[in-house]
Design goal:
The complex is a heterodimer of chains A (469) and B (69). Chain A is an alpha/beta fold and 469 residues long. Chain A has helices at residues 8-25, 31-59, 71-91, 96-100, 102-109, 162-171, 453-468, and strands at residues 111-116, 120-123, 129-136, 139-144, 148-159, 175-179, 182-186, 196-207, 211-218, 221-226, 230-236, 239-245, 249-264, 268-282, 286-288, 291-292, 296-301, 305-308, 312-316, 319-326, 329-336, 339-343, 347-354, 357-363, 366-369, 378-384, 387-392, 397-403, 408-410, 416-421, 424-431, 436-443, 446-451. Chain A is built from seven helices and 33 strands. Chain A has a 33-stranded mixed β-sheet that branches. Chain B is 72% helix and 0% strand. In chain B, helix 1 runs antiparallel to helix 3 (40-56). The chains are: A alpha/beta (469), B mainly alpha (69). Chain A binds chain B through residues 37, 39-48, 50-51, 54-55, 58, 64-70, 73-74, 77, 81, 84-85, 88, and chain B through 4, 7-8, 10-26, 28-29.
């Protein structure tokens, strides 16, 4: 018996016919967009249909084809995958092709043309949800009283001649679309051809109660005086600055140069990659979950903080003072514990912390000045490095200090018993009755000092001066 | 009957592979996991299908004319 051919072939043909028919009838239907975005689902659908067909034939005791998907079909799959993924790459306004290819050439050889963006004003209500679609350029967003959104700005268009620039300008008109409570700002940068490169700089004034969600691919973001939440994704080579935000902040960056958040009432959630992070006066919980290669500085945080990067893990209940995490060093002052810090190859210097402290370092010197005479539990472990603890003279604690390879310098006198073990030393004992203090290093010396009040405040000032700089 | 199962096992490997590839690309485009980190899954799926096939496909009888090329 001659086996009937597969039903998938005809089905795929019908589907393709329908899609192209819609495209032919209404040119607004953007076929490229659709294919670029959904082609993997097409493959899945195809696979499911073929699988169903085989199953139906198997259980219906019909003839089973030798292959669910024939050789010719596989060739078609490969072509679809190649076309689809390249179309997808090309669709993005900030794709690698534009980055390394034509745009850079344009940046080097093209001429820059500037066009003002026609001012747009719209009534949108007191608390709109503002969505800024993927664009290349800077955005400055400021909250203002009233229920009005107004937009001005400027476009920089690079191209080889003015005609191309004019054309690109006409194609990339900025639009504000409202749908219910949602306001969408669209820059249409995907519309212009490859003969020019468009940077759209937006200056937006929005109602104070707005919440903002946006995608940025290149350029700086500056948001201030917004009571709603702020959420941005993308952002490579950009500076992101948020000031006076009432809601929650969520940033998922792809290599941001710097992130500054000041005076945020809600929570802060940072993800992705970037360089410097600077958070100050945050009332909500702070989570730093990305990989940041620069300096992370946290100041005046009144809720728990959690930082988790490849190098460092930090937990603290509150940071009324500051903590500054650099590559190779951590410096902090005035922290409220429980504080927990785990790091690799980092020197740590902490002053004025209360409640318990857990430090775990691979390699690095540790310098601690609790400054409060009511100390919390302290546990310090370093594989290689010196530990110095300056305790207020009125403090009470039970100490165990151990070094496998090094010396112990004790300024607390006979209350603590020192013994040497091989190349190392051990110091044990109690000063009054207080919490456990546990210092362990495998290679390095341990110093236990009495901190006089004046000295501590003097050092504090020095630290503050260093900080101001 | 065993023959039918063998045929069935052979016939479904294409669709299953197609679904796997489609899912991986879909995840790539949705930004969940990039394709260059998930492609070994395709090898694993092919391996599993081959194993299942071995289970049901009877070993082909040795051909008299020496090893097949």
């Amino acid at each position: 018996m001659r086996m009937r051919g597969s039903i998938t072939g005809p089905l795929v043909l019908i589907l393709l016919g329908v899609v192209f028919l819609i495209h032919a009838i209404s040119p607004d239907f953007r076929l490229g967009d659709l294919l670029a975005r959904y082609w993997p689902y097409g493959l899945i659908l195809w696979g499911v249909i073929a699988l169903l067909e085989v199953c139906i034939r198997f259980f219906g005791s019909g003839p089973i084809p030798r292959n669910g998907v024939s050789g010719g079909a596989w060739a078609l799959v490969v072509i679809v995958a190649l076309l689809g993924s390249s179309a997808h790459e090309f669709q993005r306004p900030n794709n690698w092709l534009r980055q390394v290819g034509f745009d850079s050439g344009m940046e080097a050889f093209g001429e820059e043309h500037q066009y003002p963006i026609d001012a747009i004003s719209k009534k949108v209500g007191e608390e709109p949800r503002i969505v800024i679609e993927d664009f290349r350029g800077n955005a400055k967003i400021t909250g203002a009283d009233g229920g009005q959104i107004s937009l001005t700005g400027q476009k920089n268009i690079r191209s080889f001649d003015t005609n191309d620039a004019d054309k690109a300008n006409a194609q990339t008109a900025v639009e504000i679309l409202t749908e219910g409570n949602t306001v969408t700002i669209r820059c249409h940068q995907d519309r212009h051809g490859a003969r020019s490169s468009v940077t759209t700089n937006l200056d937006l004034s929005v109602p104070k109660g707005s919440s903002i969600r946006g995608t940025a691919s290149h350029g700086n973001i500056d948001v201030s005086a917004i009571n709603g939440s702020v959420e941005f994704t993308g952002g490579s080579n950009s500076d992101i600055k948020l000031e006076d935000v009432g809601g929650n902040v969520r940033l998922d960056t792809r290599g941001a140069d710097s992130i500054h958040c000041t005076n945020v009432k809600g929570t802060i959630d940072l993800h992705g990659r970037g360089s410097d992070v600077d958070l100050e006066k945050i009332d909500g919980q702070v989570t730093v979950g990305g990989d940041y290669t620069g300096t992370v500085s946290l100041r005046a945080l009144s809720k728990p903080v959690r930082m988790e990067s490849m190098r460092t893990q930090l937990d603290a209940r509150q940071i009324p003072g500051y903590i500054r995490l650099d590559r190779g060093s951590v410096e902090g002052k005035n922290l409220i514990g429980p504080v927990k810090l785990t790091a690799h190859s980092t020197d740590i210097s902490l002053a004025g912390f209360s409640e318990s402290l857990d430090l775990n370092v691979d390699r690095g010197d540790i310098e601690l000045r609790p400054e409060h005479s009511a100390m919390g539990r302290i546990a310090v472990h370093t594989r290689s490095g010196d530990i110095e603890l300056a305790v207020p003279s009125a403090a009470r604690f039970a100490l165990t200090a151990n070094t496998d390879n090094g010396e112990i310098d004790n300024q607390f006198g006979d209350a603590l018993k020192e013994s040497s073990q091989g190349r190392g030393a051990r110091l044990e004992g109690a000063v009054g009755s207080g919490p456990d203090v546990n210092l362990v290093t495998q290679h390095g010396s341990i110093t236990l000092k009495k901190a006089s009040g004046d000295a501590a405040s003097g050092e504090t000032k020095a630290a503050e001066i260093r900080w101001d700089k | 009957m065993n023959d039918r199962i063998a045929l069935f096992a052979q016939a479904i490997r294409g669709p299953i592979l197609l679904i796997t590839v489609g899912t991986l690309f879909a995840m790539h485009q949705a930004g969940i996991l990039p394709f260059y980190r998930t492609w070994p899954l395709i090898l694993i799926v092919v391996g599993v299908i081959k194993l299942v096939e071995r289970f049901y496909v009877p070993p082909s009888p040795p051909s008299p004319g020496g090893p097949r090329v």
